[in-house]
Structures are given as structure tokens and as C-alpha cells.
Amino acid sequence: MEFDLLYWWLLALPAAFAVGWLASRLDLRQLKRENRESPKAYFKGLNLLLNEQQDKAIDAFIEAVQHDPDTSELHFALGNLFRRRGEFERAVRVHQHLLGRADLAVSERDRAQHALAQDFMKAGLFDRAEQAYRALKGTAFDTEAQLALLNLYERSRDWSAAAEAAAALERSGTGSFGTRIAHHWCELALEADAKGLAEAADAALAKARAAAPHAARPLLLAGQRLAKAGRHAEAITIWDELRVRDLASFALVAHDYADSAVASGQATSARQRLQAAYEQAPGIDLLRARARLDGHDLSADAALMSHLRHQPTLSAALAVLARPVDQWSAEAAQAVGEAVARAAKPQQRYRCAACGFEAQRYFWQCPGCLTWDSFPPRRVEEL
């Protein structure tokens, strides 16, 4: 009896081994076949994508995902492709599917959350994008999420939130955001002024100057508010500080500076300062402000022709054209002609309709994209 039992065990062991070996071979063949099919579909999609055949690439990636539904990289590739094509709803579904997987690693889950936030942002769903970005706090995507939130707040004109986000980024060592914060507080000051909240506007401007002491806009805006309130002498003082710090930005309020100088009885000293500023950085706005202090229009300014010769701009040419016809001279006509020719030169080009390449002469084949007959036979100014 014992011999029979041992005999059957000896027969059963090789049989079990053979069955197991056959099963493993079948599974291995199936696995190899699936592995061959999945990369093949993936690389096919990649090749189509590189050849800018996005529709066919999407089909190939969908096929790859069906062969290997557990591969997150294929899902990311497909979702990002949907987003690039503007198919935001499909991109959201792909990334939400990834987030719904229980077996997804923490790093991949954060990556999917970041991709989902980008989907919402591109789709213009700012509330959902904000929630998605906030969920990335403390992750590897924290800094990117904070920068995206800052752009979102600026885009939606939520200046308080933008200032707070920029300050947090600066505290974290991401970079310097002082000038950007100053702009946020300047916007808040304008909003407060529109509502008649003078004290709130003053406080906002003070914070703007504290955030970026050398920024031009807080000084410019502070002077405008003082001038509007009739405090012209104080406005002149603020704008003189701006003139010393940033002469280019001072030109933006040069005309207001002249008006406040007249109103506060400082026309003579203000003219001297404007003349010095003009000599340092000649500009039509400074010239116009100086003419205002001289009590005449820019077209009657004796220095206008000299300015037009050195800076043949359309603004100066228009000022000359405002003169009466009997005051025209050959020199004036020549200067105006040169200014108009200079301004018209960028418009006297041919532009490729396919890639935007511009050229002074006509091409039958675009030198940029090599497309035939892509240049309309009309210059840019005639289109």
C-alpha cells in the first residue's frame, strides 16, 4: 500500500512540473506579445506627433493605453496632447482617471494633480484651477503652483491675493517680486480712489513704495493724486524725485508737471529743470511740456525743427504739419519727408502668409518656410 502511494507521488510530481512549465510559457508568450504591441503603438504615436499629425497620434496613444491601461506615462502623454489641441474636457478626464487610481505613487499623483490644474487654467476655469493648484501645497510642484496662482490672480485682477502670493514667493526665496508687488498695491490704490476711499489709497501707495522704493509707478501715481487734489507744489516735489530716479518714466507726466508748475507759480524753475531733462534725454513729451511753460503750442516752438532732424518721428512730424502753410520751409518739408519715410519703411515689406517672414523684395518661394506662392503680391501697408 505504501509502495503504491509512493509510486503515484513519483508520477504526480513530474506531471505537476510539466503543467506549471507549460502554463508559465503560455503566460510568458502572452506577456511578450503585449509588451511588443504596447511599445509599438506608443512609438507609432510619438512618430506621428513629431510629424505634426496630432489626430493620428491621439488614436495611437489611445490604442497604447488600451493595451497597457496601468501605464501612467501613456496617460500623461495623452492628456498633455489633448490639452495642446484645446480638447480640455478630454484632458481633464484623462488626468482625473489617473487621480482616481488607488495604486498610483504619491509623486505620480502630484504630477497628475499639476496636469489637472493646467487643464483647468487653459480652459479658463479659474476657480477650479485655483483649487487644484492649492492642493499642490507642500509637494514637489509647490513653487510652480504658487507662480501659477500669482498669474491667475493677476489675470483675474484680484490684486490683494496677488500681492499676498508674490510676498509668499519672495519669502520662500523664489526670487525678487518687489516691483511686481508695488504694481499690485498701485492697482489697489486706483481701486480705492475710484470708490472715494482716500485713506485706503494713501495706505496702498505707502505699501507700494515700501515694497519697491526705487519703482517709478508709485511716485508717478502719488504725484497725480496730489495734483488732482490741488496740492500742486507737493506734486512737483514728488515728480522731481521721479525725474531724478527715472527720467524715462518722468516723461509720462511731463505735461502734468508743467500744469502743476504753472498752478503753483514755479513755471520758471520748472522750465529750467525740463530743459536739463530734455538735454539729458531728448523726447517729444519733454519738448511739449517745455513749450507749455513758454506759453505756446509745440508747433510754434523754435526747437521743433532741430528735434525733428535728430529724432525724425511721426509725432514731431505731426507737430510741424500743424503749422500754417505760410510758415513752411524747404527744410521743414525735407524733415517731414524723412520722418514719414522712416516710419513707413517697416510697412513697405512683403509678408509670407504661411510663416510671417518679411522681406523688402518679393519672393515666389518663402526663404523662411520654403512655401511657394505664399507671399501676397501686396505690401503689408496695403493689406
Distance between the termini: 106 Å
Helix content: 55-70%
Question: What integer value in Å does the Rg equal?
Answer: 35 Å
Q: Which descriptor suits the 3D outline?
A: flat
Task: Characterise the protein shown here.
- This protein is mainly α and 383 residues long.
- Among the domains are: 214-320, Serine Threonine Protein Phosphatase 5, Tetratricopeptide repeat; 346-383.
- 70% of the residues lie in helices and 1% in strands.
- The chain contains 19 helices and 2 strands.
- The chain has helices at residues 2-50, 54-67, 72-84, 88-99, 106-122, 126-134, 142-155, 159-171, 178-194, 198-211, 216-228, 232-245, 247-250, 254-263, 267-280, 284-294, 304-310, 314-321, 330-344; strands at residues 350-351, 358-359.
- It has a two-stranded antiparallel sheet.
- β1 (350-351) and β2 form a beta hairpin.
- α2 (54-67) packs antiparallel against α3, α3 (72-84) runs parallel beside α5 (106-122) and α14 packs antiparallel against α15.
- It is flat and about 85 Å long.
- The N and C termini lie far apart (106 Å).
In short:
The chain is an all-alpha fold and 383 residues long. It has helices at residues 2-50, 54-67, 72-84, 88-99, 106-122, 126-134, 142-155, 159-171, 178-194, 198-211, 216-228, 232-245, 247-250, 254-263, 267-280, 284-294, 304-310, 314-321, 330-344; strands at 350-351, 358-359. It has a two-stranded antiparallel ribbon with strand order 1-2.
